[in-house]
Amino acid sequence: MRRRRLFVFILLLFVWGVFELLGFAAWTITTGRLFSWSDASEQRRLAIAESGGDVELDQDLLVRGAVRHGSMLHPFLGFVHAPPQQPDPPLPVTAFGFHGEREPVQKRAADRYLVGVTGGSVALHFTLYGRDAFIKALQRSPQLRGREIEVIALALGGYKQPQQLLAVQLISALGGEFDCIVNLDGFNEVALVNENVPMGVPGWYPRSWNNLATSVPDPEQLRRIGQLGVMTDERRSAAEAAGFWWWSPLWQFVWSWRDRDLKNRIDALRVAAEQAARSLPPAAIGPGTGGKSLAEARREMVDVWRRCSEQLAAHCNAHGIAYLHFLQPNQYVPGSKPILPAEAKVAIDPEHPWREGVLDGYPLLQAAGVELKLSGVDFTDLTPVFAGIEEPLYFDTCCHFGRRGHAIVAEHIAAAIRRRIELGGVRIERLRVEPTELRLGSPLQAV
Questions:
Q1: What does the DSSP assignment read for 355-389?
Q2: If 0-12 CB within 10 Å is exposed, 13-18 middle and 19+ buried, where does residue 344 land?
Q3: For residue 95, is pLDDT > 70?
């Protein structure tokens, strides 16, 4: 009897071990990455955070979650982020609704250099992910050496023109001063028109304006909101329960599989709630779309984008501010970056609703960028900055890239600013090059 019991015990251990190995293999196959307890822990924490749970996140997850921060209506900008209620939040939001520890209304001084950054979520990530690399690159300028460089965020997820223009003008009207304004945008202008136009809302209105402007949902919308609340709580509870079985690859795989399904259902229900057809009040639709198709609305948005950039340049010139405009990179721009299979699994979705906006809209943005340069705007197309870089940079199927990508972007933006402040007013009449050839082993190594 003892031998039988021992045999059954060993057999159960063997079967359990086989299932754990199967869980290990299933996780690796479905995610494209070898199972690790730290990776599973990171996914659980992100699921809890996205479901409204109170959890300590590392800096990368905090930055990614910044674009989903709660919004509140704003009388001039459409919306801003709601300041956190808890003391000492990990990602502070000022009373003005922008991210940062200091209010955006600052004064210029001889020992400071104030850089305002405006745009959408990629620009917001730049102020969080790329801040250190950006400041370090600027400090190499002789003109800025010894000065405190402060990056002021005027960017929020979903912002598109004219919100960038109005944000800079508003802070200026309130007495804020800048030495430089960096405008990093373009994607939202061509990708997000499909959030407004199908609802009869102008493409140039703030994103999903019909939801922001409608304060009393109809019964069907209330049902969706209730379902979202229940499903969100269910997702958080499942992630917390999976933390109890953290040591089991099989349990983590089963939880991860169910979590992906639940997240997809939550996202689909959220999209349905955002695009729910209903009778909208005049405040929610404004002048309407005039019957424009998505393609026509996209072309209109590119014109708005160009004119707003010209007005930003004029505003900055009138106030002695250097203005630089950059078209943000995106993985769906053909030839802009080699996307290998590992990165494609997390960064490419052929059916993504915003992919069409990039394919149709980015050529229009690039053509408008040429017009901006001809009109005197300091415009730079950053879509090729990741060309030739095979390492994974993008972390979602929309447009966002991580710390390494922002370090690359920071070098390009800092170089453009240095060109302005170090060569401003210089007229080059002729060049003499000695020696005739110079070979550099690395663009990052000082020579």
A1: HHHHHHHHHHHHHHHHHHHHTT-EEEE-TTTTTT-
A2: middle
A3: yes
Q: 218-270, pLDDT tens digit by residue?
A: 677 678 778 888 888 888 888 888 887 777 877 778 888 888 888 888 888 88
- The CA–CA distances, whole Å, from 108 to 131, 176, 338, 402 equal 19, 9, 42, 31
d(CA 300, CA 204): 8
Nearest to 389 by CA among 330, 328, 340: 340
pLDDT mean over 194-199 = 89
At residue 53, the pLDDT reads 54
- CA dist 67 and 120 (Å) reads 9
Structure tokens at 323: 């203005």
Model confidence, pTM = 0.72
396 in Cβ contact with 346 (< 8 Å): yes
Beta-carbon neighbour count of residue 192 at 10 Å? 23
- Which among 388, 285, 371, 266 is positioned nearest to 327, based on CA atoms? 371
Place of tokens 């005739």: 436
Report the half-sphere exposure of 119 (CA within 13 A, side-chain side).
22
- Mean pLDDT over residues 423-431, rounded? 83
Residue 89 confidence (pLDDT): 66
Number of H helices, E strands in the chain: 16, 7
Integer distance in angstroms from the first to the last C-alpha of the chain? 78
DSSP, collapsed to helix, strand or coil, labels residue 110 as coil
Question: What count of other Cβ atoms lies within 10 Å of the Cβ of residue 403?
Answer: 17
Residues 6+ apart with CB under 8 A from 368: 302, 303, 305, 306
